[in-house]
């Protein structure tokens, strides 16, 4: 295989959040060795939104403003790499994507890091910072005028949201309904689930387990604010509230793959969930497409991997595998002979066992290295110090530098 270091190489990364930002930054670093390498980062938004900090953004207007970081300066101006603020409309074939404005972009390597969608307003849908801030503000204003709040879903997001709402508005009646018989993901120890119930209760949250409520079909963003009665599917019990916050219903929307599926004659997404099928190397699951990688929430790895820090690690794995392919001259060989065999690349391994769940600014539960800190004061200390203050927003700032001329974004 040819390993001419001056050859033109186009790497396109779609999605600039945890997975995509890590991949794009690492790949851009390769251009010192490969001056012809160009990374194009495509994102439909003007700003990265720090979803991890949503529970704090909901109750703290100044934090909500800070949680949007601009893509504009993702690459240094002189780097030769480019950020394109446009949606991915289609992966047309094994070398082209089409953007929302109709533009076609050629790629030698493609990283699809488009994540998943939580229901609004938890999954902020706004394309610009102003739109995103307005979505969160609308919910906050709804909360301020409400006397009762219903949070549906007792995973980490639901627990954190219920805790922050209860801590910020102690006079409001907050209920958390969860379909399972314990809170938080099942792969973690029962001690943190019990600790979460205890700490939420101490803030006045009513926790209802083993209860699935019916979600009305018209449950759009706007209808989250306003009086509603949701009914328990099995119990028939009615839950009346002034504001409802859904922390369930995560899905992947990768309809842009339909043309590529037609071109290769095989489905590339899982049935139902719509996640993009991947191999342990994070390559898309098709022999003919060894140069397409899918790190992060968009892929078909289990639910236990759907965390920001794991998406970031996967972005690193995708970049490292692309580096291996580039170094072996794979793209040049593939152009000359599309059936050229791809060299071996490495698998991503999920070895990190960590969860930090703040329940309001000063309480929380945690698990690291199989040690669960549920009911303990140490859990409160660890979570409030490591996470609750800024929800690790500081760790993201390095990816998205502010524009130089002190321009407000
Ligand atoms: C409210 C909330 C709280 C969370 N809290 C935590 C936490 O405390 N700790 C933790 O580890 N994880 C947390 N998570 C999970 C974490 O946010 C995700 O696992 C992580 O964001 C996944 O990263 P990603 O890069 O795969 O995708 P995403 O973060 O979903 O990013 C996808 C990117 O792709 C872009 N995009 C999507 N489609 C297109 C398209 N067609 N064209 C162009 N661009 C597109 C989007 O604009 C976005 O920038 C939380 C999630 C939510 C919703």
Automatic annotation (TrEMBL):
Pfam families: Pyr_redox_2 (PF07992). GO terms for molecular function: electron-transferring-flavoprotein dehydrogenase activity; flavin adenine dinucleotide binding. The keyword Membrane does not apply. The keyword Flavoprotein applies. It comes from the Eukaryota. Residues 10-302 form the FAD/NAD(P)-binding domain. Keywords: FAD, Flavoprotein, Oxidoreductase. GO terms for cellular component: cytoplasm. Belongs to the FAD-dependent oxidoreductase family. This is FAD/NAD(P)-binding domain-containing protein.
